[in-house]
Amino acid sequence: MYDTEGNPIIGCNVYIENTYYGSTTDLNGYFNLHAIVNDSSNLKIEFIGYEALTIPTSSIEDKQDINLIMKEAFNKLKAVTVTAGRMGTGEKTEVAVLSSLDVITTWCPR
To answer: Across the 110 residues of the chain, what is the mean pLDDT of every consecutive 10-residue run?
Structure first.
């Protein structure tokens, strides 16, 4: 599994749809999958931030090496909610409301 720039994608979910046969890609983007499939089976590859791939297993049957490229999927979010809590024994309560500009410009040392 590679991205459009040729970099391996680590940790992709690779599985045969509607079965328990599956695998994940390694540090080099490779995966091994040994499964019993029928003519209507599909190989599914998914990873967060990329468009999912669905490939009929009949088109890749008996091939040892297949090169697949995943395209990034850009999702525009309208809102993001961040919640936090704390444990304490005091009665003092503090509330802070952040705008989107606060989240982008707030610096947090590591």
So the answer is: 93 92 93 84 92 88 81 75 66 67 57
Do residues 16 and 31 make contact, with C-beta atoms less than 8 angstroms apart?
no
List helix spans (H) across 4-110.
100-105
Output the average pLDDT for the chain: 81
CA 32 vs CA 27, 35, 65, 69: distances in Å: 13, 10, 10, 17
Q: Reduce the DSSP state of residue 86 to 3 states and report it.
A: coil
SS3 state of residue 57: helix
Question: What token pair was written down for 38?
Answer: 């029928």
pTM: predicted TM-score of the whole model, two decimal places: 0.64
Q: Which long-range contacts (CB under 8 A, 24 or more apart) does 95-98 make?
A: none
Q: Residue 94: helix, strand or coil by DSSP?
A: coil
The stretches of the chain forming alpha helices (DSSP H) are: 100-105
pLDDT of residue 3: 93
